[in-house]
Amino acid sequence: MSTEFPINSLRHFMLPDQLVYLKSFEANSLEHLDVLVKQWVDQTASIIAVIGSPVKSNEKYLLSLTYVSAVEGNKRV
C-alpha cells in the first residue's frame, strides 16, 4: 500500500461496495472490437471500470473488461 494513496484498491476507490463483472469480446480486427464494445455499452448502459489490453490470438483479437451494471436488474450480456 502506498503512503501517497493509502487505499486497498483502485476498484474500491472508484466503485466502493459495487459488484464488478467481467466481460470478454472477440473480433477479427481492432476496429471491429471497438465497434462491439461501443454497441455493448450502448445496449446495456454499463459502466466500464477497467479495460484490458487487446491480445491477438489465432488471428482473432480478444479483449476483457470489468464493468458495473448501470441499472439494477439490467440483463448482463
Chain-averaged pLDDT: 80
Instruction: Look at the helices and sheets and give the structural class.
Output: alpha+beta
| Distance separating the two termini | 34 Å
Strand tally: 4
**Residue share in β-strands:** 25-35%
Low-confidence stretches: 73-77
Indicate the multimeric state.
single chain
Q: How many helical elements?
A: 2
Order of helices and strands: HEHEEE
Q: What is the molecular shape?
A: flat
Radius of gyration: 15 Å
Topology, pairings included?
Elements: H1 10-14, E1 21-27, H2 30-44, E2 47-51, E3 55-57, E4 60-68
Antiparallel strand pairs: 1-4, 2-4, 3-4
What does the model show?
The chain has 77 residues and is an alpha+beta fold. It is 26% helix and 31% strand. A hairpin with a 2-residue loop joins strand 3 (55-57) and strand 4 (60-68). The longest helix is centred in the middle third of the chain and has 15 residues, at 30-44. It is flat, with a radius of gyration of 15 Å.
